[in-house]
Amino acid sequence: MSNQNHVPNDTILITGGDGALGSVCGFGTRLSKNDLDITDLKEVMRVCAEHKPKFIVHCAALTDLPFCEQNLEMAYLTNAVGTYHMALGARSVGAKLIYISTSDVFDGTKKEPYIPKDIPNPTTVYGRSKHLGELAVQGLLDDYVIMRISWMFGGGKKRDNKFVGKLLRQGAVPEIRATTDKRASPSWSKDIAKAIQTLIRDDKRGIYHVGGGVATKFDIAQELVAITGWNTKVLPVHSSEFPSPYDLGDNESMPLSPLVRPWREALREYIETEWKK
C-alpha cells in the first residue's frame, strides 16, 4: 500500500486465512478455521467486537463444486449463512466487508464476458450459495465490496490442487488434453491479494469483476508448456470428453481488470517463483 493512503494492518481482519487466497494476503490479521468458525454467529460477533476492524476481507468459503453438490447443507451453511454472519459482524462494528465471490453466480450462457451489472443466475449449489452470500452483504450493508473471481491459480506445490497445479505436478507427459469450449478469467492469488489491498486503500465500494482476461483450459495448458519448455503436445478437446454434472455454460469469463495483470504474465511469474525453485 502507498504511504499516502496507508491502512494499518491491525484494522484489517481476514477470514479463511489458511486458504488459497487468505494465506497469501501479506497484510491484516489472518484468521484460520480454528481461529474463527463463521457458521457460529456468537463467535463471529465476539471476534469482531474483540478486534474492532475497519475492514473485513471475507475469503472463507467452500469452493469445491462436486463437494458442494453432494453436501448441500454444509455449502449453504458456510457460503450463505457464514457470509450473512460476517455481514452482521461487520455491521456491528461499522466495518467495510470485502466479500470474495465467484463468476459461478452466472449461468455461463452469455456470449460476451460478464460485467458487474449483469443479473446473476447460478445453476450450481456452489454458485447459488455464493449468490445468497452476495445478497446478504447487499441487504445488510451500505459499505461493501463484492469481488467476483474465477479460475484462480496459486499456492505452489503445497496448496495448488486446481488445473494449473495438477498439470505442473504431473510434469512433462507426452500429451495434455485440454478443453477449448469453456472460457473463464484466470488470475494469480497474489495478484488478487494486491487487488484487495488497492480496493481497501482507495475506499472503493460496489461489485468488481477481477480476472486476468479470457482463456480456455487449452490456452492455459499451451502457455504452461511454453513457459516450462516441456516437449508436450496439447490436444484440443470438447468438454464432453470430461463429463461433469456441475458444468456451467461455455462462458464464465470477465473482462481484463485493471486491478490484476494479464493471466499469461502472472502465470509465468507464478511458475518461475513458486514451482521452479
| CATH superfamily caption of the largest domain | NAD(P)-binding Rossmann-like Domain
> What is the fold named in CATH at topology level of the largest domain?
Rossmann fold
Average pLDDT over all residues = 95
Q: Level of helix content?
A: 25-40%
Order of strands across the main sheet: 2-1-3-4-5-10
Shape: globular
Top-tier CATH class of the largest domain: Alpha Beta
**Biggest sheet character:** 6 strands, parallel
Total separate domains: 2
* Amino-to-carboxy terminus distance: 28 Å
SSE succession: EEHEHHEHEEHHEEEHEEHEH
What is the CA-atom radius of gyration, in angstroms?
Answer: 18 Å
Count of DSSP helices?
9
User: Any guess at the CATH architecture of the largest domain?
Assistant: 3-Layer(aba) Sandwich
Strand-residue proportion: 15-25%
- Count of strand segments: 12
Low-confidence stretches: none
Class computed from helices, strands and strand pairing: alpha/beta
Can you characterise this structure?
With 277 residues, this protein is α/β, with parallel strands linked by helices. It has two domains: 9-152 and 187-209, Rossmann fold, CATH 3.40.50.720; 155-183 and 214-274, UDP-galactose 4-epimerase, domain 1 (Alpha-Beta Complex). Helix content is 38%, strand content 16%. It contains nine helices and twelve strands. It has helices at residues 41-51, 65-70, 72-93, 125-140, 156-159, 163-170, 189-201, 217-228, 263-274; strands spanning 12-15, 29-30, 55-58, 96-102, 144-149, 152-153, 175-179, 183-184, 187-188, 206-209, 215-216, 233-237. The strands form four sheets. Strands 2-1-3-4-5-10 form a six-stranded parallel sheet, sandwiched between helices. Strands 6-9 form a two-stranded parallel ribbon. A two-stranded parallel ribbon has the order 7-12. α4 links the parallel β4 (96-102) and β5 (144-149). α1 packs parallel to α3 and α6 runs parallel beside α8 (217-228). The radius of gyration is 18 Å and the shape is globular. The two termini are 28 Å apart. The model has no long low-confidence stretch (mean pLDDT 95).
